[in-house]
Write a structure and sequence with these properties.
24% of the residues lie in helices and 34% in strands. It is built from 9 helices and 20 strands. The protein has helices at 43-51, 93-103, 108-121, 137-149, 167-184, 195-201, 219-224, 229-234, 365-368; strands at residues 5-14, 17-27, 32-36, 58-63, 66-67, 78-81, 155-159, 187-192, 204-209, 212-217, 239-248, 251-255, 261-264, 277-282, 287-289, 296-305, 309-316, 321-327, 339-344, 350-353. The strands form 4 sheets. It has a 6-stranded mixed sheet, sandwiched between helices. The protein has a 5-stranded antiparallel sheet with strand order 13-12-11-14-20. The structure holds adenosine-5'-triphosphate.
Length: 370
């Protein structure tokens, strides 16, 4: 049976430094939940508070409504997989996996059965009698995963498990982890600083910065409707350009310059005043290079043809610089130095308050604009 994890206003201090500040989140049963954020934002610290390696200075962590703050690590029944595998090099694969079972005094027959089952699940049966040093990084990480899962933990914690693997293996292993997690159905908390990995693997993601959660949501929500400028720039590539809101009789317009504005139907009207300054977040593929008179004018500074598409870095007349991506089949490749005119796909873009940097798109605004 999988469990839920409830984190309620937890605080962690190292000396005077508050690394986690009144952080709250709920992880559902059987969910693969990712903590994503830049280096030093407190992801590992939070994971270590959940498993019990770090004490909790304030707030509560509950497993299925039971407070675990003062339960020692070995009684919390959690499994952890580390970046550096932390497997024993002198022991065989089988002995590595048996280790936790021996500590828990599991009988011989059950131990053999559980080891064989988990070896099949993580697909390393044929390497059972080998030593880890004779196996690849991906296979070593599978041993670490098997060792964490074989004790039938209530929660699986994974701290940057793919960081030591090369790019190709990382993709292979992230698919393997997702499949194994779904097969076993175990509630999993996954830590990474790699936004692509988080988008690929997670049921839901919490984006963190400086010990504070910026947004919690499904990968597609976080990508298409980032809650603030930080999330917008951390997840994928976003160009941030300045705009001004103008209220007209037929609705709200965001003006990018004197000649070009877009009508927005999904803004939080109540929070907006006429002539309000905003930040407009436009992903590179949300620009359209156009022959129309009105638009955002600029000059191509550099052109990069990448097969499927072409990337342009454009210096705008406003002084801002943006990246634009166009499908190669749709457009001819434009040379450096060319003056161009850009329009934007208004349904895709995000608008932020210039001071607070929080979104001005109302909840559900995504669906409304489809
Ligand atoms: N034991 C400790 N003593 C003092 N400060 C610590 C300790 N552990 C972590 N910190 C500090 O807490 C902050 C958060 O660290 P943490 O390792 O949780 O970040 P992270 O988001 O996991 O980063 P990374 O991806 O680099 O591991 C950092 O500023 C770090 O220096």
């Amino acid at each position: 049976m999988s469990v839920s994890v409830n984190i309620d206003k937890v605080v962690k201090k190292f000396g005077e430094d508050k690394v986690i500040d009144k952080l709250s989140l709920d992880i559902q049963k059987g969910e693969l939940f990712t903590l994503l954020g830049p280096s030093g934002c407190g992801k590992t610290t939070l994971l270590r508070m959940i498993i019990g390696f770090h004490s909790i200075d304030d707030g509560q962590i509950k497993i299925d409504d039971k407070v675990i703050n003062h339960i020692p690590v070995n009684k919390r029944k959690m499994g952890m997989v580390f970046q550096n595998y932390a497997i024993f090099p002198h022991m065989t694969v089988e002995d590595n996996i048996a280790f936790g079972l021996k500590v828990n005094k599991i009988g011989k027959e059950e131990m053999t059965e559980r080891i064989n089952d988990i070896l099949k699940t993580v697909r390393i049966e044929e390497h059972k009698t080998k030593k880890p040093e004779n196996l690849s990084g991906g296979q070593q990480q599978r041993i670490a995963l098997a060792r964490a899962l074989v004790i039938h933990p209530k929660v699986l914690l994974m701290d940057e498990p793919l960081s030591n693997l090369d790019a190709k293996l990382r993709i292979e292993m992230r698919n393997a982890i997702k499949n194994i997690q779904q097969e076993v159905g175990i509630t999993t908390v996954y830590v990474t600083h790699d936004q692509e990995e988080a988008l690929a693997i997670s049921d839901r993601i919490a984006v963190m910065n400086k010990g504070i959660i910026q947004q919690i949501g499904k990968p597609e929500e976080i990508y298409s409707r980032p809650a603030n400028v930080f999330v917008s720039q951390f997840i994928g590539t976003s160009n941030i350009i300045k705009g001004i809101i103008k209220k007209k009789e037929d609705g709200l317009y965001v003006h990018l310059n004197d000649m070009y504005s877009v009508k927005m139907n999904n803004l939080k009207q109540d929070e907006i005043v006429d002539k309000q300054e905003v930040l407009v977040s436009v992903r590179p593929q949300e620009f359209i290079i156009t022959n129309k008179e009105s638009g955002i004018k600029g000059e191509i500074d550099s052109t990069m043809f990448l097969g499927l598409n072409t990337h342009y870095f454009v210096n705008l007349d406003s002084g801002e610089r943006v990246e634009v991506i166009q499908d190669s089949e749709e457009e001819e490749i434009l040379p450096e130095g060319k003056d161009i005119n850009l329009n934007i796909k208004s349904k895709k873009i995000n608008i932020y308050h210039a001071d607070t940097k929080e979104t001005l798109i109302k909840a559900g605004g995504h669906d409304e604009q489809k």
